[in-house]
Design goal:
With 512 residues, the chain is of the alpha/beta class. It contains 14 helices and 16 strands. Helix 1 (25-35) runs antiparallel to helix 2 (42-56), helix 3 packs across helix 4 (99-115) and helix 7 packs across helix 8 (267-274).
Length: 512
C-alpha cells in the first residue's frame, strides 16, 4: 500500500491560497439554504466553518466523518462549488464507490453552480462539456481535464491531474466486506498520489463500514498496518449522539427518533454508521479480545529419549500440527492453512504458529502446486519441532498423503504423517473447539499469529456466513485432536499408520 503523507501541508510551504469569491464558505451555505427555503442547522455551520478554516490554513489532508443522513455530501458539493467560485481554474476529481454515486455528487455541484448567485460567473455561454460525469466552467486556463470529473473506484484515472480530490463514501459494504475487497480498496486509493498535484487537497468523506475501516484512527496490526491508512489527516468526527448524550442535530434527530433508529438498525450498525465507531457488521461470536497473547519462543530439548517442549517456563504435554490443504490460487478461493496448537498441564491451549500456504505461479514450470504446498507444510511443522503432521483428507486432501510420504521419504525431518477425515460440519467444529476455551480465557496465541490474518477471520466470522474461515478450521481441528504425545517420534510411518484410530497421550507427570 502506498503510504500517505505523514503530516498535512501548511500554507508556509505552499503557494498562497487564492482569493475566494465575495462570500466565505459558511455564508455561501447560508445563501444556498435560503434559496431552497431551508434554515441552516448548527451542525452544518460547524462543518462549514471547519472546512473553511482548514482550507484557509493550508491544510490539504482532511477527513470528514459525520453520521448517516446528516447532509455531508450536500455540504461537500457546496464546498466544491464554492472553491470554483474563488478559482475557476481548479480541477476537481470526485471518486465514489460506484460511478452512479460519483455522478450524483457531480450533478449536485453542477446544479449549485447553475443556481447559486455567487457562482453565476462560472457559467459558460455555450457549454460544450456539461455532462453528468464531467463539466467545465468558464475559466482562463486551457486544461485537458474538466473542472469536475466523476469516477467510480473502478474507473480509469490514468493521465488525469487534479487540484482537489473528493473521496465521497468510497468505503461501502461492497468495498470492505472481505479482506480481498479491503485490499483492493486501499490499492485503488493509493493511485490518488499519482493524480493529485503536489499542492492539492484530498478530502475523504464517509462513515466506517468495517472494523478494518480506512477511516480508523488506530493501526490494525493484524492486517499488517503500522499506522492508520489516513495517518496525518486532519479529522472532524461528528457522531449522532454527542459526549454529553445530546443529539448532534436535535431538530431532526430527537431522542425518540434516535432510540427508534437504534432498535431498527441494531447495535452493530448503529455504532458504525451513527456513532462512527469502526465495528464489525455483526456481533462477534469469537471475540479476539478474549485471547491471551504471548511473545515467548518455543524451546525444545531431548531428555531421556523424549522431546520436551516449553513456552517460557510452561511445559507442554501435547501438541498437534494440523494441515487443512487447498489448491486455491493466490488471492482466490480457499486458503491452505496449517496450525500448531499445544496444551499445557493446566489444560490451557497455545496457538504457537499459523500459516496460510500459497504456491508460486512463477515456479509452476519447475514444481507443481501440490509439491510446493507440501514442502511448505513439512518445513513449517519441522520448524516448530513437531513429530507428526495431521492432514485433513476431505476434498483434495485425499490425493495428498502419498505425495507427502514421498517428500518425507527423502527428507531429514523426523516427521510422520497422520490422515484424518472430518465428518462434522465446519461450523460445528469451530464452535465446539474454540467457544469453550475462549470463554474460559484458555486460548493463548503467539504474537506472530496476530499478523497472519487469523484475527481478521475471528472478528468477522459468524455461523452460516460466507466469510474466510480456513485458519479457524485448521486451529479448531488441532484443538479437537488433542491430546497428542509430545515425545519420542515413531520409528517409521507404518507403525503409526496402523493405529490411526488411537489417540497419542502425553505423560503429564514428566519433569523438564
Amino acid at each position: 500500500m502506498a503510504k500517505r503523507s505523514s503530516s498535512p501541508g501548511r500554507a508556509t510551504d505552499r503557494p498562497a491560497v487564492p482569493k475566494i469569491g465575495f462570500l466565505g464558505f459558511p455564508q455561501f451555505v447560508i445563501v444556498w439554504n435560503k434559496l431552497q427555503g431551508l434554515a441552516t442547522p448548527v451542525l452544518h455551520l460547524l462543518i462549514s466553518r471547519w472546512l473553511y478554516r482548514k482550507w484557509l490554513a493550508g491544510e490539504r489532508r482532511l477527513l470528514l466523518m459525520v453520521f448517516r443522513d446528516a447532509g455531508k455530501s450536500t455540504l461537500v458539493g457546496l464546498f466544491a462549488a464554492w472553491l470554483l467560485t474563488g478559482n475557476p481554474n481548479l480541477r476537481i476529481l470526485v471518486i465514489a464507490a460506484e460511478q452512479m454515486l460519483a455522478n450524483k455528487m457531480s450533478r449536485n455541484i453542477r446544479r449549485i453552480i447553475e443556481l447559486h448567485p455567487a457562482a453565476s460567473h462560472l457559467l459558460q455561454q455555450r457549454p460544450e462539456n456539461w455532462a453528468n460525469d464531467q463539466f467545465t466552467v468558464r475559466r482562463t486556463r486551457n486544461h485537458r481535464d474538466p473542472s469536475v470529473l466523476a469516477r467510480g473506484l473502478g474507473g480509469n484515472v490514468t493521465g488525469t491531474r487534479a487540484d482537489i480530490i473528493v473521496c465521497d463514501d468510497v468505503e461501502v459494504p461492497n468495498t470492505c466486506s472481505t479482506a480481498s475487497s479491503r485490499d483492493e480498496l486501499r490499492q485503488r486509493l493509493a493511485e490518488i498520489d499519482f493524480v493529485l498535484v503536489p499542492t492539492g487537497l484530498q478530502l475523504f468523506v464517509g462513515t466506517p463500514h468495517s472494523y478494518y475501516s480506512i477511516y480508523a484512527d488506530r493501526a490494525r496490526a493484524e492486517i499488517g498496518e503500522q499506522r492508520p491508512f489516513l495517518d496525518g489527516f486532519e479529522r472532524l468526527c461528528l457522531p449522532l449522539v454527542q459526549a454529553d448524550g445530546t443529539s448532534a442535530w436535535p431538530e431532526r434527530f430527537t431522542p425518540a427518533t434516535i432510540e427508534a433508529l437504534r432498535r431498527h438498525t441494531g447495535p452493530q450498525r448503529f455504532r458504525s454508521q451513527m456513532m462512527l465507531e469502526p465495528t464489525p457488521p455483526r456481533a462477534i461470536k469469537l471475540d479476539p479480545e478474549r485471547l491471551v497473547t504471548y511473545t515467548d519462543a518455543l524451546e525444545s530439548r531431548w531428555s531421556q529419549g523424549r522431546l520436551r517442549l516449553t513456552v517460557g517456563e510452561t511445559a507442554m504435554v501435547s501438541s498437534v500440527c494440523w494441515w487443512d490443504p487447498a489448491y486455491g490460487r493466490p488471492g482466490r478461493g480457499d486458503r491452505s492453512a496449517i496450525a500448531v496448537v499445544m496444551v499445557d498441564r493446566a489444560g490451557r491451549y497455545w496457538l504457537h504458529g499459523l500459516r496460510y500456504l500459497q504456491f508460486s505461479i512463477e515456479r509452476l514450470e519447475d514444481v507443481d502446486e501440490a509439491t510446493q504446498l507440501i514442502r511448505q507444510a513439512i518445513d513449517f511443522a519441522a520448524g516448530l519441532q513437531q513429530t507428526r503432521l495431521f492432514i485433513e483428507t476431505n476434498g483434495i486432501g485425499r490425493f495428498l498423503p502419498a505425495l507427502v510420504r514421498r517428500e518425507l521419504k527423502g527428507s531429514a525431518h523426523q516427521l510422520t504423517l497422520v490422515e484424518r477425515h472430518s465428518s462434522r460440519g465446519k461450523t460445528d467444529r469451530i464452535l465446539s473447539a474454540l467457544d469453550p476455551i475462549m470463554a474460559a480465557g484458555h486460548l493463548h496465541i503467539h504474537h506472530s499469529v496476530l499478523e497472519s490474518g487469523f484475527i481478521e477471520e475471528m472478528r468477522e466470522w459468524a455461523p452460516g456466513t460466507n466469510t474466510l474461515d480456513d485458519g479457524l478450521d485448521a486451529v479448531s481441528n488441532a484443538v479437537l485432536e488433542q491430546p497428542v504425545q509430545v515425545g519420542r517420534p515413531p520409528r517409521n510411518s507404518a507403525a503409526l499408520d496402523g493405529h490411526l484410530g488411537q489417540s497419542f497421550v502425553a505423560d503429564a507427570s514428566f519433569s523438564i
